[in-house]
Amino acid sequence: MLRSEKQSLQGMEKRLYDRFRKSSDFTCRTVVIANEEFRACYLESLVNLRTTLSTINQNTVQPDNDWTRQDFHALEDEDDSVIRLSYELLRGNLILFNKEDSVTVIEPEQPDISRSIAIPNSENPIQSAFDAFTEDIDRNIGLLRKKMISDQLVIETRFIGGRSVKKLAVIYLEGTARPKVIESIRKSLDENSDKELTTARDLTRMLGHPKFAITPTYISSELPTETVQNLMNGKVVILVDQLSFAFAFPAIVTDLWTTTMDANFPQIFQVFLRIIRVGATLLAVTLPGLYVVLNSVNPELLRIQLAITVAKSREGVPYPSIIEMLLVLLLLEMIIEATIRLPKNIGPTITMIGGILLGQAIVQAKLVSNLLIIILVASAIANFAHTSYMNAIGIRIYKYVVMIASSFFGILGLEGAMIWITLYFASLTTCSVPYLSLSLKGQASDE
Amino acid sequence: MSVRMLKALAAALILVLPLVGCWDTKDINKQYLPAVMGIGKGRTDKYRVILQIPNASGKTQFLEKEAKSISKAVDLIRTDSEKNINLVHLRLLILDKELARQGISNIVNFAVRANDISIKGMVAVVDGDFEKTLYHEISPTPEVSSYDFFSEEAGWTPNQSILRIWEAYRGLNSYSEDMAIPMLSNGDRTLFTFKGTAVMREDRMVGTLSKDETLLYNLFKGKYSRGTIEVAQNTSVMIEKAKIKHHRHWSDNGPSLVTDITLGVVIMESPRDKKHAQIEKEMREQLSRQFNQTVKKIRDYHSDVLGIGMIFRPRLSERSINEWKSKWFPMLEQKINVHVNILNEIYLKDPDVGS
Amino acid sequence: MNKIQTVTLLFLLQLASVFAVLPERMIAASSGGHWIAVTILFAVELLLLWLYLKALSLFPGKTVVEICIGAWGKWGTRLAVIPLLVFLMLDLILLAYYQSIEIKTVLLQQTPIAATSVLFVFLCLYGAWKGLAVIIRASIGWFFLFMPFVLFSVLISIKNFKFHYMFPLWSGSMSFLFHPDFYVGTVIFAGFLFLGMTSSETRIGFGKAAGAVGFSFVFALFSVYIPLLLFGQETAIHLQYPLLLASDTIDMEWVVFDWLPSFYVVSSSALGILKVSVLLWMFVSLLHRLFMPKANSRWILSFACVILYLSCQLIPNIGVLNSYLYLNSYFCLYATIVFPILVFLAAQRRRKKVSA
């Protein structure tokens, strides 16, 4: 009898060992708590054993300690429980076996491996709260709770994943978010609860968003303040453990030019800023195409004075304007990509070399025309006048489509490309909401 | 599957496009963009076409050919030139006086029909040496001064008339008006000198109006901003505003028209003690005389260049509109009364009031 | 989707036909008092619209086809719809060809029609592929993208107006009623047919629809009178694209671009694409619903587009286009006048049946 108990305890330990054979941070050792011996199994990297034990021991000293009433339950020698236990281990819990061959799981003190709340790194809030999300989901939820004191803030947590398990929280404001949206998100999460989730793209795929969308179907934000605004605008926010971003679903067309930060400004400033951003969107998409149109297909659109100057500035450039444009655009995209990942103190150097020196040299070498550089810079600036980097990428890509269409059909191609994108946006529906909607609140009208 | 296949098919079709080519793609620096086209009588052929091509350095390039038709001549120029010729920016069509006398309907029809010529371009007639005017070049001009000459934002004054290609086309077809074409010749220091206005009947030039007489034409067309008139010795006024009122009558002997022109003027120059009332009187008499003379002259040309038919149009039936030029216009009785109102003398007081 | 969008789409469809046919045909049909002809057209349209919407409102949630099937059975409906289908197909082809020609004339002189119509047909295919709901939604986007151009190119020529060319305001005879060009103008009615095929939540009442039509009536008057006031009847009658040339008469320095007809063509061809997509969608869904319920509607659509493209290539010149337009006006009269009346009668009959 005793033998078999012993066996089952060791068997369990052995099976855990087998399971974590390749993980060198898996440890099993004997510990003493309240003068009792326990076998403790845990992952060294996730558990700070010493402080845990001392906390427990401190508790046991107190008169009405409940340590003895700790929920030890009998060990069942089944595969099921091995899987369950190993899952608890991976989540950073401590497993204790006692002599009576029962087992308990306790939440130990964890080594300090998550970042503390800091200012945002990828966003630049103006006149707003400066705290940003961190990797720890519970902390993030806490941030939101703190920013929005309301009993209508619903937080549904769930665990998702096959090989690895991720904690995920679906957050919305009851009564503000459309029930249809919540329902469709819940449904697709249920359907895909066994898929891997590590990146934002996994999340969108899980939610059944189109694979090749040229516009982001969600808004990601690092700022709790902005996320609260998103919630109040009727969006559903999904937080994923270990991603320091909140994803707000679904994105609609107005997100291209609005940021919730605008709400901190007076109304008229907000209108002005939004008009500028809408203009920037249009310019960023059409300017390179327009250059090709004006230069090679429909020069009659230019006023005569301008036409003559443009012709002169292109004098001696050996390439057709589409090639010229593509060459320099490629260069510009590389500069943008290069500066993004560089440390902050090297970035300006690249900008200077790339922008000023190369730009100057390339014009003087008569490889491209002056006007092209102006157009290019204008379109690049317009491109980054958007509210988020994500939105800008879609537009960066789409301008090539516009350009190529323009080089074939001139202004008609430009028009066609614009018509196509309108149709495309109109046909895009995420989480049961058409992309061309103006608001997500309640059953409000579409655009 | 079917959807997928269709998509692939569509993509493949789109990929074929670049293979076929970009038909209209021709870079702007590989094109000549002429701003002025001169059409004269050829020495050997019917038309002689001269194109003025401005470039950014301020020089003008001249290309010339002769042919039986204008488009053929342009085509010949294109053959010989090192760049493509694109007429889209043609802004001034200069015709030889000889051609204008023989009729310009062919030329105007060509300009309207050609889809690469904008019908907002202007038309002018050369009074004088056609070749010299067309080849005239003054060195420090901006590249498009020939166009600025007529531009209301730049060099136009109420002494000049303007005719655009579409107006010329309308003039050819209209039952109730005729057109007038400005006349130019080369200037000494300037690019052009304005010589007056050619009066057209249908498509033929029948006479001319001098610079002063053009004022009446512009008044009737409603363009009068800030022209200066010399009244008597040492006295000149500037027209600030002009009001025209027509009194139409239709009697048994045909139409008659009395026009009241009220000019609001500002005195620019006058001898020291000349009274406003006197200036008013002199001006009224002088202008009435001059205008009525002009009207008579125009009527003798049998050309409704002032657009009197337009004034009568609301009263006419469809049939009488058709008959206007042939039947009714020659029967027209016309009289012009001028009223002058001196608005002020800018910084000085009226001597009448002052004393 | 909501009602504003449907109203916008109706308005844009009206505009598409107004710009494509109205100025040229009205100027050709009548030598004076053009407003009478235009007003008669729109009055008739309002009457038909009322009948059509009345019939629809009796059976909320049902499309015209369902109403007709209820009244006359499947074969009766098919019979009633066949001329409508012919009209739709012909109108599609003619509109696509007309737009391609206009584009070739003004924008791309060297490019063959085969190439421009690829783009044109492709965009229409994409629109119709995505369905009417998407087109309706996109129509708002179009409205904001292209209406400024339309308004701009149309209204800016006001500077050059000669108002005396409006006269004679009254031509005693109604001779235009006997002019075939006047009946070509009835294609503007085709704009409202789609109202009977939308789902119930987007259905609009007569008031709103009449508002859209009334608003487009103003544009129709503009489109006829702008060329008239600029060129005069005597001149405008010679012009193939009166409104297009009207936008070329402007020469102002503050206008950034020079060649304004291009913008006119751009906006009117965008409207053309809109109309062709809607008609294409109607054509395919009628065909699918009544004649080929088994076939995949996307195959029908693709097939229709191929036919559309090929027919555009087969029309040799604009004279042939005109003769087809005259031919089409018979079908058009059926589709836009007889068909709504038929639907109305069907609805009445059906209601009697139900109540009896």
Question: What would you say this structure looks like, in words?
Answer:
Chain A has 14 helices and twelve strands. With 447 residues, chain A is of the alpha+beta class. Chain A has three domains: 2-106, no CATH class; 137-250, no CATH class; 263-430, no CATH class. In chain A, the strands form three sheets. A five-stranded antiparallel beta sheet of chain A has the order 1-2-4-5-3, sandwiched between helices. In chain A, strands 6-7-9-10-8 form a five-stranded antiparallel beta sheet, sandwiched between helices. In chain A, strands 11-12 form a two-stranded antiparallel ribbon. In chain A, strand 4 and strand 5 form a beta hairpin. In chain A, helix 10 crosses helix 12. The longest helix of chain A is centred in the middle third of the chain and has 31 residues, at 267-297. Chain B has 355 residues and is of the alpha/beta class. Chain B has two domains: 29-209, no CATH class; 211-355, GMP Synthetase, Chain A, domain 3. Chain B has 13 helices and 14 strands. Chain B has helices at residues 2-20, 70-80, 97-102, 105-113, 130-135, 145-148, 165-173, 211-221, 276-300, 308-312, 318-322, 324-328, 351-354; strands spanning 31-32, 36-41, 47-54, 60-67, 84-85, 92-96, 122-126, 180-186, 192-201, 204-209, 228-230, 236-251, 254-269, 333-344. In chain B, helix 4 (105-113) crosses helix 7 (165-173). The model of chain B has no long low-confidence stretch (mean pLDDT 82). Chain C has one domain (3-355): Up-down Bundle (Amino acid/polyamine transporter I). Chain C is 75% helix and 0% strand. Chain C has helices at 3-29, 34-58, 64-106, 113-130, 132-155, 180-184, 206-231, 233-236, 242-247, 260-291, 297-314, 318-355. In chain C, helix 3 packs antiparallel against helix 10. The longest helix of chain C is centred in the N-terminal third of the chain and has 43 residues, at 64-106. Chains in contact: A-B, A-C, B-C. At the A-C interface, helix 13 and helix 14 of A face helix 4, helix 5 and helix 10 of C.
Low-pLDDT stretches of chain A are 1-6, 442-447
Structural class of chain A: alpha+beta
Give the largest chain-chain interface (CB within 8 Å): B-C, 37 and 37 residues
Reading side by side through the largest sheet of chain B, how are the strands ordered?
A: 4-3-2-6-7-8-9-10
Seen as an oligomer or otherwise, the chain set is: heterotrimer
Q: What string, H for helix and E for strand, traces the elements of chain B in order?
A: HEEEEHEEHHEHHHEEEHEEEHHHHEH
- The succession of helices and strands of chain A, N to C, reads HEEHEHEEHEEHHEHEEHHHHHHHEE
Mean pLDDT over all positions of chain B: 82
Distance between the termini of chain B: 102 Å
Gross morphology of chain B = globular
Sheet with most strands: strand arrangement of chain A: 1-2-4-5-3
Mean pLDDT of chain A: 79
Count of domains of chain A: 3
Shape of chain A: elongated
Q: Any idea how many domains of chain B?
A: 2
Helix percentage range of chain B: 25-40%
Whole-angstrom Rg of chain A: 29 Å
The radius of gyration computed from the alpha-carbon positions of chain B, rounded to a whole number of angstroms, is: 26 Å
Main sheet properties of chain B: 8 strands, mixed
